[in-house]
Amino acid sequence: MGYSQEVNVRSDVVIIGAGAAGLSLADRLCAAAGRPSPTVQLVQAPAGPLRPAPRTWCFWENERGRYDEAVTASWNRLRVRGPSGRPVDAATGALRYKMIRSPDFEAAIEGRLADHPALSRMEGTVEAVEGIADGARVLVRTTDGEQCGLTARWVFDSRPLGSLPPSRTTLLQHFHGWFVRTPRPAFDPGAVELMDFRTPQPERGLAFTYVLPTSPRTALVEYTQFSASVLPPDRYDRALETYLDTVLRVRDFQVEAREEGVIPMTDAQFARQSGPSVFRIGAAGGATRPSTGYTFAAIQRQTSAIAAALRAGRRPVPPAPHSRRSRAMDAVLLHALATGRLDGAAFFTRLFSRVPAERLLRFLDGATTPAEDLSIGLNSPVMPLLRSALTLPSRPLRPSPAP
Q1: Beta strands, E only, 290-378
Q2: What is the C-alpha separation between 175 and 294, in angstroms, rounded?
Q3: 50: buried, middle or exposed (CB in 10 Å: 19+, 13-18, 0-12)?
Q4: If DSSP codes are grouped into helix, strand and coil, which group holds residue 2?
């Protein structure tokens, strides 16, 4: 059965996906004060395997931010611990490290846009996106089985890619986290344990535990690995149990919620355009920082630029989320970790002990100067990184592993 013209809907913009990228773009397109907003159709996947599970996003910015009403907690101190347990405490200066849970972010956007006249929402499964003479058409099967065609001048697609582009190096950042509650104070709510390396390290890559304390008795405790493949599910639980028991000495706790995920960390080149009027945004458009897996801040830069282009009447091609220089440095680091040349735990501990945290965070956002990048490089293990930089160009592009 074909798609009926009787249910064809026309708008200026169709956004596919209502995760961080889709909701951020809808918010920015509908928030322009003093000027008409483009008409926006937002297509959300129905409940089930196509809709992402609740997740946590972390990022850093100046004290006040666009989505502060959705922030669960924020900190101005970071802590990194090497394998010996010795802490490196670092103040973040003018920046705050922020944590947002996806249900809170969705609720905040819903509150802003619930009755916005320019926005329409639909639940359904996108079955095809095709170019037409003056834009693109999105073919959707709604939750009640109806077939619908949405046409628009511009389409922004945030759905996860079916497969990753070819790369020279791809590692997977895979993690399981527990939201824990203790009967007595067990956490320092004034600082994030950004990387605690008091856990066995893989032969190639690295492993650490990440603690986001939301009060003295509650925290998200997350075990993370950067490696070539994921672990059996019970390995993550054992790692978390061991960390809480033997490292933090927390034996009495309740697990209130869980989260897990796999983030590709790759030097692959992501296409930001899949048709004359169809663009990819978010992780599908390369917003994930290859060396760390952070994505939320790059999504905000990307969606802000798209909204500004549309308001100015320009072609809204999403900008590259990360500079060419940043991607080149990340490619070298990934190659050094993947080959085992670089001791990841020692590398990150050394960086945070020698470079001010605010500068490192600006570096990870691509906001440092070449001179600052050089100073960070000189505080890194030069020889393993130099060897990786010299051998990387000779590596062929290969299909990336599936996340």
Answers
A1: none
A2: 13
A3: middle
A4: coil
3-state SS, residue 89: strand
What's phi and psi for 330, nearest 5 deg?
Answer: -65, -40
Among the listed residues 134, 137, 254, the one whose alpha carbon sits nearest the alpha carbon of residue 186: 254
pTM comes to: 0.94
Amino acid at 248: L
Residues 6+ apart with CB under 8 A from 97: 58, 59, 60, 74, 75, 76, 78, 192, 361
User: What burial class does residue 370 get, using C-beta atoms within 10 Å of its C-beta: 0-12 exposed, 13-18 middle, 19+ buried?
Assistant: exposed
Q: Please, which residues have CB within 8 angstroms of residue 86's CB and are 6 or more apart in sequence?
A: none
* pLDDT tens-digit series, residues 121-134: 999 999 999 999 99
N residues, the chain? 403
Distance CA 51, CA 295 (A): 18
Burial letters 386-398, b for 16+ CB under 10 A, else e: ebbbeebeeeeee
- The enclosing H or E element of 196 equals strand 192-196
> Burial of 97 by CB count in 10 Å (0-12 exposed, 13-18 middle, 19+ buried)?
buried
DSSP structural state of residue 167: B
Beta-carbon count within 10 A of 147 CB = 15
- Tens of pLDDT, residues 239-269: 999 999 999 999 999 999 999 999 999 999 9
What does the angle CA 160 – CA 298 – CA 375 come to, to the nearest 5 degrees?
A: 130
